[in-house]
Write a structure and sequence with these properties.
Number of strands: 7
Number of helices: 10
Strand order of the largest sheet: 3-2-1-4-5-6-7
Order of helices and strands: EHEHHEHEHHEHEHHEH
Shape: globular
Strand content: 5-15%
Largest sheet: 7 strands, parallel
Oligomer: single chain
């Protein structure tokens, strides 16, 4: 197998357990010859199995709160020291909604919770990019990928405030992508993934029914976490050097399918 990331150095955020997309990305990056550090918030690290992943991929772990710029400076500094040079790729796989966790409907959002979700899930990308740019920590033609969901474009009632937050995340990727690309040739994209049976995804009310619905709509079916990891690897590689500021749908065709025969059949139409 050709190794698309041979010699590249990276930072992978958000690997919680074996169901995480970030976990699969780390495994694939390791297979493709990359070296990288793993990072997550300290509280998330206590909940997950990141030490197992670190051992499997011969990686070191740097705890960091992505909402804290001092933590991010420490992350980029230590990552470069551990890996022996500037960073070539970053995966932003960070998302959290207290409102969803507490089953608070969209019309009655707790705004303190909403602000927390924005800070953790969207502004963290801006902070990460700002710190990296000011430190000149990412190599020219480096790649940053953030995971998103198409509720940023369409309304899914169960996704509540995360829909607004993901829209902000995608906007940050476009806006920062312009400036970082112009000055350092760093490319920034978001990947809009199918409903995926991750720990976070399955915690959303009604997720199982919607997963089945999306699978019935998409001509290719839902894209798996492993498939998403493969896609991220291509975006980290030199094969996609001219792709930036894009929101890239990775969903088996769901986003461009109006209705499917399978769904019509279930409705008796």
């Amino acid at each position: 197998m050709s190794k698309l990331l041979e010699g590249k150095r990276g930072i992978i955020t958000g690997a919680l357990d074996q169901n995480s997309i970030a976990w699969k990305v780390a495994e694939k990056a390791h297979e493709h010859g990359a070296t990288f550090v793993l990072t997550n918030a300290p509280i998330a690290m206590r909940m997950g199995e990141i030490n197992e992943l670190a051992a499997k991929t011969n990686s070191q772990i740097i705890p960091a709160d992505a909402t804290n710029t001092e933590d991010l400076k420490k992350l980029f500094t230590e990552a470069q020291e551990i890996l022996g040079g500037k960073i070539d790729f970053v995966l932003h796989s960070i998302g959290m909604s207290v409102n969803i966790r507490k089953n608070i409907p969209y019309q009655d959002l707790n705004y303190d919770f909403f602000q927390k979700g924005i800070d953790v899930s969207a502004l963290s990308l801006h902070k990460m990019l700002s710190v990296a740019k000011n430190m000149d920590a990412i190599n020219e033609w480096g790649s940053v990928v953030a995971l998103t969901y198409m509720a940023a474009q369409r309304t899914y009632p169960f996704y509540t405030d995360m829909a607004d937050i993901k829209a902000m995340l995608e906007s940050i990727a476009r806006s920062f992508g312009y400036h970082y690309g112009l000055e350092k040739k760093v490319r920034i994209n978001t990947v809009s993934q199918s409903p995926t049976k991750t720990t976070a995804g399955t915690g959303i009310k009604g997720f199982g029914d919607f997963y089945d619905y999306a699978d019935a709509i998409a001509p290719l079916g839902n894209a798996s976490a492993e498939d998403c990891a493969n896609y991220c690897i291509t975006l980290f590689s030199d094969l996609t050097r001219m792709v930036t500021m894009q929101n890239l749908f990775h969903d088996g065709g769901y986003s461009t399918t109006g209705v499917s025969d399978a769904v019509l059949g279930k409705l008796g139409i």
